[in-house]
Amino acid sequence: xxxxxxxxxxxxxxxxxxxxxxxxxxxxxxxxxxxxxxxxxxxxxxxxxxxxxxxxxxxxxxxxxxxxxxxxxxxxxxxxxxxxxxxxxxxxxxxxxxxxxxxxxxxxxxxxxxxxxxxxxxxxxxxxxxxxxxxxxxxxxxxxxxxxxxxxxxxxxxxxxxxxxxxxxxxxxxxxxxxxxxxxxxxxxxxxxxxxxxxxxxxxxxxxxxxxxxxxxxxxxxxxxxxxxxxxxxxxxxxxxxxxxxxxxxxxxxxxxxxxxxxxxxxxxxxxxxxxxxxxxxxxxxxxxxxxxxxxxxxxxxxxxxxxxxxxxxxxxxxxxxxxxxxxxxxxxxxxxxxxxxxxxxxxxxxxxxxxxxxxxxxxxxxxxxxxxxxxxxxxxxxxxxxxxxxxxxxxxxxxxxxxxxxxxxxxxxxxxxxxxxxxxxxxxxxxxxxxxxxxxxxxxxxxxxxxxxxxxxxxxxxxxxxxxxxxxxxxxxxxxxxxxxxxxxxxxxxxxxxxxxxxxxxxxxxxxxxxxxxxxxxxxxxxxxxxxxxxxxxxxxxxxxxxxxxxxxxxxxxxxxxxxxxxxxxxxxxxxxxxxxxxxxxxxxxxxxxxxxxxxxxxxxxxxxxxxxxxxxxxxxxxxxxxxxxxxxxxxxxxxxxxxxxxxxxxxxxxxxxxxxxxxxxxxxx
Length: 671
Hints:
single chain; alpha/beta; CATH 2.40.50; Ribosomal Protein S5, domain 2; 5-stranded antiparallel β-sheet; elongated
């Protein structure tokens, strides 16, 4: 590999903190060790003085073979330690204070040692052991005589993490790079090659790092397999914890009452839930505590705890995104109990994993980047500053971003700006580029909340306003955002759209009816018992007025009627859809094409009298926002159109109706 201009520049400006990434990738084959551990060993035991002729890689391999131990080798190593009295291992070590004995206890991860002896001096020399643990080369001795029952004694620790980080030095050297060079250096530092990416792909990789530089940041990434969703959190930082899909408990995640110890959120900068579809919470309290923590960084369980960990949800989307959007929503991979709008609204950004390139061999870099132990300290140091107010000098937020939306956008923007401009010196143009991307990532969350049926999430037309020019710029999402769900073409016989409200939840429904010659059978699918009651009411109304509603010389007993309900937003279906079913059935029997973008509002009794329509404004708004052009309005509700926003009312033509027959007659295309 030939050194390029960026290699030469970074070797000149950060010579002691960079490493050739291809060395690490080749060395990692056969060793299930985090990347940052391998890079530290290379930096310590290999000769990197000549970037064109690196020596000593074989020495590092020998060290790994002798001293890195798999968990299944723990008992064998303990036997050798007992026999020889001394052993050097590469392992993750942590320590905690046993207040009953007033002494520190050491734990080693792969060796499964939970009660090791360690001196106060070693703990004070390496305080990271008290902050969730650290990887190190550890000298152990076996001393059963002095410490019966706990003979494993930590004699010496050689940290495999940067022991000294000078932030000012890092920031000053950053000034030597353009923003393009700096972005490419960050991408190479995580092991990828920026020359194979466009600017948007680079932004996706930077967004994955935001939870590591911004306190209490919540991110979701769902997409196909093999795009590197968990790679960043497993390999790139010793400060992140990757929790594989499965059961988790309040004690593990938040606080263990028995041991009085804060859980994972207090020990790590970031908790990443891998394969979110498999997540299960044994304790029902866990979800509520997760909501509280994602909102404020605090939770209460006997005691109130403040923590700064970010939360990342990773998972797979196996279907085509456009198909998924038509049938469901982009949070579908989450467990049902987590498809809670109150929980999902606390997510600051949705990274569209389906747009991220899969990790092909050519996407891994052979060039130089920051050593991970150094870069992880860089990221951790950035958590102590904030750039949430950066846009205020130049931009205002549009009216449709509420307080939580604005907070989410500001936190995403802050994280990205700190990564790109750690010196805090950014231009208006730089802020605008990051602001637009941050708004897009929050809008993606809001669009899916809107599809889940919450009326409070309907304001998704996000924008920002230039304070100087007063120009308002609207930000969309690539997957379509608020695309019309209601057909904009004339509706075929039997097809109408309506809104049902049941159990406080609002559902946009597509109603389709097929009528064939038969023996008078009727059925309805897709809506449960309430929908069957609505069909029964409708059939009773038509049956008592067959001469009035049906073609001459025909009766209900001459037809087989099948009604299909398809929820397009939401899932709850009530019995308040009788007029829509009435229009659907009659248009199918008479073979009448209906108006384009037709929405039906109205509910009736078995005699055909209209009932009072509840939540009228919500129904009109949902239909209009999803593409309805004409909407039937019971006469008693015409005055309430004044309560509908001007923006919504301008999109529709109200069709006043006195009863279900009115609705059918005026819904026809020829009317």
